[in-house]
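Exercise (ungraded).
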Amino acid sequence: MILFTYDKTFDGLLSCVFFAYEKKKFPDRILSESDQKPLFVDEQYYVCTEKEKSGRVWKGLEKKLSKFAQNMMLSVWLSELPEAEMLLFRYIRKNIDHPQGIEMNFGDDDVLRIKDIAQKVANDARRLIQFVRFQETADGIWFAPVSPRYNVLSLIAPHFKSRYAGQPWIIYDTNRNIGLYYDTRSVAEVSFAQKDLPDLKTGGLDEEKLSGEEASFQEMWREYFKSITIKERINLKLQRQHMPRRYWKYLTEMQ
Amino acid sequence: MKNYQPDRYFYDFKFVELISICFLCKRNTNHATGKMNDKTLEKLKILADAAKYDVSCASSGTSRNNVPGGIGTAAGWGICHSFTPDGRCISLFKILLTNQCIYDCAYCSNRRSNDVKRTAFTAEELAELTIEFYRRNYIEGLFLSSGVMRNPDHTMEQMVRVVKLLREVHRFNGYIHMKTIPGASSELIAQAGVLADRMSVNLEIPSEQNLKLLAPEKDYPSVFAPMRFIQQGMLESAEDRKKFRSAPKFVPAGQSTQVIIGATPDSDKQILTLASALYKRPSFKRVYYSGYIPINTGDDRLPALAKPPLVRENRLYQADWLMRFYEFKASEIVNDAHPDLDLDIDPKMGWALRNPAFFPIDVNTAPYEMILRVPGIGVKSAKLILTSRRYGRLNSVQLKKMGVVMKRAQYFIVCRELPMQTVNELTPQYVRRQVSRTQKKQAAELLQYSIDWGE
């Protein structure tokens, strides 16, 4: 078994591709330094990340793949699934080896899998756009805790940036302890101190941290939610299908 | 996917340690409280409850960027922000301006003769509430409807005022759907059309004589006149915009309408023929079907239903999709021999079983339009099949992975393997038994052992 180790960055993965073609050694596993190594390893290489080499690989892919397929690859990377590295590696390799690229061949398992994962990531991002709930804090920042399955914050930033251009907001991923902070000019990455985390995870902020009118608007929204329901048509299964339970934690109307 | 365009190296965010910037300070106690009070809450309850029977809640069809100093965008793809326990989407803040009404329509909860609490929002109140909900990402925009107070023109004027406030004072750039009050003057509709994204006039009852029966004060001309006017405005604006890019858009997301299902004896054929005639108009985006819910009891013009006709409503939506995305004609889905949709099987399967001669279809060679007609293959999987078969012939395992529902599709296709038994060998009656809903239900019931204790 041939094993590559790298620094767990997207550039690092592209460097692995470059390295493999340069040395004519194709890995069976790609892991980061800190991962558990498999038992039987014949050869092991540490691949240094070099922006120049990864850039060349990406340029080559840009020639063969549509913007759509490129975005799918980035989405798969954001999924942070354990299988993502090898899947992307095989996908890139197949595209390099095929004269026209195999982007549209959904009969191929890897192409289909890339599409499926990218779709899941896109769905997660879409759900976030749907179910983010801002609360106005006492110091005028609009705060929204979220817990997406994949690392999709960077995908949703442009949407919220243009929609709420005039209000400073924070969207905070409580699973990964990382958030986006928009100060009405640009978006920055932020993270809270460890001791504040348990409070954030429960969703609701303390009364004293909220702005004066926040509680009454939340109350109105809950009442609206109740009133707009048609009792004769109750269909909880359908509700859960569209709005899975794992999003309810931070939804104002489900508290 | 196309909505997210991550650049090569994602976004280069700068990293800020945010421990002391916010949250840990105490509330600013001199914050003004109480513009929104209990009275607003009470109004909200009444007017939301009165608005809930309108099904349309889509926010798709236009995309718009933010304007400097304003708030809001329109995403182009509909975003649902929540789902109520009845499984319906909340995308827009659906609300009535008032539930006072001069009309007395038999099917409506706000009719004159009903003894319900009447109330009305002021324009300022409603505009502010919309903005506050929007800021919290509860909604995509406003769906403004109203009972008719005094006369149609007066009502329409009040509604236009709300929307004007939103657009011009609050600089709101999100989605706005406005109901047109039948009988309102065309000047008011013209004003509204420039401000709103979508406008709609509800037909409610799929045939004129039944509308006359249930809503004696309404008639078809008063519904179709504003529809025609909106369409004309849209076409003119499209022409103008070819010459001047800055010409204002008029109802950019088109118009829609709603019909109530099951309140009158109208057949599905009547409903779908009407819908397909409407879809032929360039401005028409959606026809909504609303299963009749008996709100007003004791009116002998209306049927007594135990449950709203939800299955029929679902089948109508399926047929609607067939007309809009699958290139089916209304006459193929329902005709004189079959004026109503089959509740046991979906309309596409129904068509396939009536036309077994059309099948089997070879997915590796057939054109797109024919693949679309196979039950169990949708638009997405049909497109995947089309692009993938260039690389080699497809087999049934690959089809399944692409999302084809083989349980239904197997009787109508051949692929790389030896042909399976198709509808022609097995007869349509057999296939029907295999896929029908009631059959499945009965089988499931049989499996549940009922224990008879002989008491």
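Further reading is listed at the end of the chapter. For now, observe: Chain B touches chain A through 86 residues (CB under 8 Å). The mean pLDDT of chain B is 84.
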